[in-house]
UniProtKB/TrEMBL annotation:
Stated name of the protein: IclR family transcriptional regulator
PROSITE patterns linked to this entry: HTH_ICLR (PS51077), ICLR_ED (PS51078)
Domain spans labelled IclR-ED: 65-247
Pfam families in alphabetical order: HTH_IclR, IclR_C
HTH iclR-type domain sequence ranges: 2-64
SUPFAM superfamilies reported for this sequence: GAF domain-like, Winged helix' DNA-binding domain
Protein keywords: DNA-binding, Transcription, Transcription regulation
Organism expressing this protein natively: Brevibacillus ruminantium
Length: 249
């Protein structure tokens, strides 16, 4: 019974922004289990509204039941309501978008965005999941994780997001050490081509890293000489948010 539950929950993780639809046999092959088992799991999820079959393709995709649960989670999550005004102030001072990335297991998840008003800006959706080995917003979290967790991430492989993603384990570990020493991270084109990121970590009361705050946008708007001034604004917001987090975490 527990194995079936594990497989069912694992199945849901295959429905991503990059791969939104699956056929039964296609998914069974990917999961390396029988297509009969996959069909039964999909049928059960479909019955409760968590999965639906798309009529044109005859493939399965996530159902609307998730929207209700997402709404409940969002309503109960006071963190973004507390932090968003601070993020908006950073946008006003820097004229660039600001992102709150939360640690979820061994991944990051975009929890909130305060968008720049500029016509050209970095676009990311709330709820997007990110690997922790690429980009300032992610590496500034990974830098403060226990070495055992870092090792687990490294062992899974450093799949490239762009041509600038660091793929050598030793080089990444050196960068993480430097980030931890500096207390902030800077990247250009590591997660998305031609996009810069300047990020600082956020901690719970027990000093465990829980999230990052990042300013990001087109790289042509952030030459190196502008970084110190923008970082100063970001670090002021970091201190303000830390005091908020320590009240609730």
């Amino acid at each position: 019974m527990l194995k079936t539950l594990d497989n069912s929950l694992e199945l849901l993780k295959y429905f991503t922004r990059e791969k939104r639809q699956w056929g039964v046999r296609e998914l069974a092959k990917e999961m390396n289990i029988s297509h009969t088992a996959v069909y039964r799991m999909l049928a059960t999820f479909e019955r409760y509204g968590f999965i639906k079959k798309e009529a044109k393709t005859n493939k399965y995709e996530l159902g609307y039941a998730f929207l209700e649960y997402a709404s409940i989670l969002r309503d109960n999550l006071d963190i973004t309501q507390l932090i968003h005004p601070v993020m908006k102030k950073v946008v006003e001072e820097t004229n660039e978008s600001v992102f709150l990335t939360w640690l979820d297991g061994e991944e990051g998840i975009c929890l909130d965005i305060a968008e720049s008003r500029q016509p050209v800006k970095y676009a990311l959706s709330v709820g997007s999941r990110t690997v922790l080995h690429a980009g300032a917003s992610n590496k500034v979290i990974m830098a403060y994780l226990p070495s055992s967790t870092q090792a687990a991430i490294l062992d899974r492989g450093l799949l490239p997001r762009t041509g600038h993603t660091v793929r050598e384990k030793d080089k990444l570990l050196q960068q993480l050490s430097q980030i931890r020493q500096d207390g902030w991270a800077y990247s250009v084109g590591e997660y998305t081509d031609s996009v810069f990121g300047i990020a600082v970590p956020l901690f719970a009361q027990d000093r465990q890293v829980v999230a990052s705050l990042t300013i990001a946008g087109p790289d042509y708007r952030m030459p190196r000489e502008k970084v110190p001034g923008v970082l100063q604004v970001l670090q002021a917001a970091q201190q303000e948010i830390q005091s908020l987090l320590h009240r609730i975490l």
